[in-house]
Amino acid sequence: MAAAAPGVSPHRAAGRRPGTRGGGTAEVVFGKVGGSILLLCRNVSKEATEVLWFQGDPHSFPPLFSSRVAFPPDVRFSLVDNSSLRISELRLQDEGNYTCKEVLNKTDHEHRVQLLVANPPRSTPKCWAETSSSGLMLQLFCSWPGGYPHPTLHWTEEGHDLENSSWLISSTSSSDTHVETLNSSHLSHRKVFKCVGSHVVEQEEPACSVEIKVPSLELEPPKTCFVGDNVTLTCRVTESVPAARLTWLRGITQPEIEPGGRYFIAQEGNVSHLTIQNCSQGTDGGCYVCKAQNPVGLREVFVCLTVKQPTNIVGVVGAVVVLSLVAVLTISGVVLYYNPLLCLRGRSKLVGRGGNYP
């Protein structure tokens, strides 16, 4: 059995795949960069006078290592039991095909081993959910980059493998990422899916998870627009996994509002803005519907708009001033009409007291 790298289980480190003798590769062995590996020379006869190890072409000369002489004298290479080859401080360039050959007077046995030098994936798997291009199905993504050979990734739900589930529409893998597309008919709010990763040089099986959620919308206060002005209605998603598609409707039974003409729609992340230009009292007033939808479910919220005629502030102020002047003049006229000598009497009193008034 191959010697495992520190902290790596033997069956994962070696990754031995038995094969047939002859011209093909007999087995495949996985090692870890910086670790060590033991390449077994199987079926060596006790009568063998010498064991040779070759890297690449088994008929090349000189051999990589010999039980009699080392070619070259690399301290990373050594023999175990005078037959098996140990390689320490593994490097990527150590990867390749190795052949051991015993030297006998009557036979010439060979055993071939393919060594793959693996790298551990970086960090841990990352999971996320998206909506399919059709908008009807859920896509689960699991990525665990940086490993060689590529890791194995699979999705589960409550401990059951999704590969064998009736939910599964399709399953694809590309290098370090695994994607599963699920039918939305079985989905429900806060259902959790788990991705488990495994790698030939990792003893643990790290995992990540995704909790899917129906969209939640924030209520918006009513809006007011004066005829001829512009107004912007806002719809904000506070929670949605995967991200929700946002659309606007003029009413529950009306078709979706398409951008163009007097309508302008802009979305920034989880917020959608509907701008209405040149407000019309006859056509724009009422309640609009913001619809948020993902494969898990649908939510709607009303945003109500009131359209008013503009108020002439200058005219109102002028009218108030005119009315005030009219009131003052009217009161003055009434006073003078009923008591015309009032002002003269007041003047006489002042003259009598001061004596110096003109």
UniProtKB/TrEMBL annotation:
Biological process per Gene Ontology, one example term: cell-cell adhesion
TM region(s), chain numbering: 313-338
Listed SMART domains: IG (SM00409), IGc2 (SM00408)
InterPro entries the record matches: Cell_adhesion_signaling, Ig-like_dom, Ig-like_dom_sf, Ig-like_fold, Ig_I-set, Ig_sub, Ig_sub2, Ig_V-set
Region feature Disordered, mapped onto this chain: 1-23
Topology class, membrane: Single-pass type I membrane protein
GO molecular function: cell adhesion molecule binding
Residues annotated as domain Ig-like: 6-100, 121-213, 215-294
Entry GO CC: cell-cell junction; plasma membrane
Localization in the cell: Membrane
Keywords, comma-separated and alphabetical: Disulfide bond, Glycoprotein, Immunoglobulin domain, Membrane, Transmembrane, Transmembrane helix
Major subcellular site: membrane
Superkingdom assignment: Eukaryota
Protein name: V-set and immunoglobulin domain containing 10
Native organism: Gallus gallus
